[in-house]
Amino acid sequence: MGVGLRRKEAVVFVHEQLRLTAHDATKLHRVLLLYLLIEGLMSDIFLLVANNGFVSKIQYVSLSYNLSGMLLLVFEIIESTYWLRKKTRVFIKRLLFCYESSLLGEILGAALQQTFFTQINRSRMFKSSNNINQAVSHYVWSIVGHGIFVLFAIAFIMSVRALWAILYVRWAHQTWVIFSASCCVDTALGRRNKMTMLGGYRWIDDKLYYKPEALKSFGLVKVEKEDGVELMALRKLHWFSVPKNDFVVIGEVTKLRASVGAWYE
């Protein structure tokens, strides 16, 4: 791309390369990963009951991280089913799954979950549920209670992400069209990028483009053919192997702008 990577773009590049699934993952692969994440989530919640002090704070951070991974994987599964229209998929991804707000939601979630968990344990509704607990079983009722806690935690993280994304777009772009405008790069990448970058967009002449730094942070590279034509390509991520020349061409670079079409195998 002919541009260097600053710290922010470098962090995004690392996250994109450490995505949970490979580019050729099937629905079965994603479901199995989702099961493992849910198992880790439930383990974190049960360990929170047994630990106190500094260890519990580490456990809350782990819980937030697992929640974030689970939400991202669930959205990836929905993307792979093609149930969502393109505009709806892009809107949700830009609002809830952008790098500018994802970390903030995890940090605030980890910081406030302990207070929220304590308030639930001390609430009248929780104390009055002892009769139900005795009627069923401690294990079943604990799963129900932990499920309610997870739903509240997810709602809080998503609310923080959405609010911060809205504020960021208003501050950086002064227009709401960033959430709804189509971009040829997003169309070509589809579900192949882990999340999106709101700060990587540029609104020019009523069209939405990506900055070169943002394209490079997603792992896109510029390839020049023998006849001088410049192409954009992306390295495919595999489960266990790292081929040297496994690139996929997604578009052509003309006049510092990318005209991106469908994926070419």
Write a compact overview of the structure shown.
With 265 residues, the protein is of the alpha+beta class.
Describe this structure in words.
The strands form 2 sheets. Strands 3-4-5-6 form a 4-stranded antiparallel β-sheet. α3 packs across α5 (99-122) and α5 (99-122) packs antiparallel against α8 (138-173). β5 and β6 form a beta hairpin. The protein has one domain. The chain has helices at 7-17, 27-50, 54-81, 86-96, 99-122, 124-127, 130-135, 138-173, 184-189, 212-217; strands spanning 201-204, 207-210, 220-224, 230-235, 247-254, 257-264. The chain is an alpha+beta fold and 265 residues long. It is globular. The chain has 10 helices and 6 strands, in the order αααααααααββαββββ. 59% of the residues lie in helices and 13% in strands.
Domains counted in the coordinates: how many? 1
Kindly report the average pLDDT value: 78
Secondary structure class reads alpha+beta
How far is it from the N-terminal to the C-terminal residue, by CA?
21 Å
Note the total helix count. Answer: 10
What gross morphology would you assign? globular
Total strand segments = 6
The topology string of helices and strands comes to HHHHHHHHHEEHEEEE
**Which regions are unreliable across 5 or more consecutive residues at pLDDT < 50?**
258-265
- Note the beta-strand portion: 5-15%
For the biggest sheet, the summary is: 4 strands, antiparallel
Helix content: 55-70%
Order of strands across the widest beta sheet? 3-4-5-6
User: Rg to the nearest angstrom?
Assistant: 21 Å
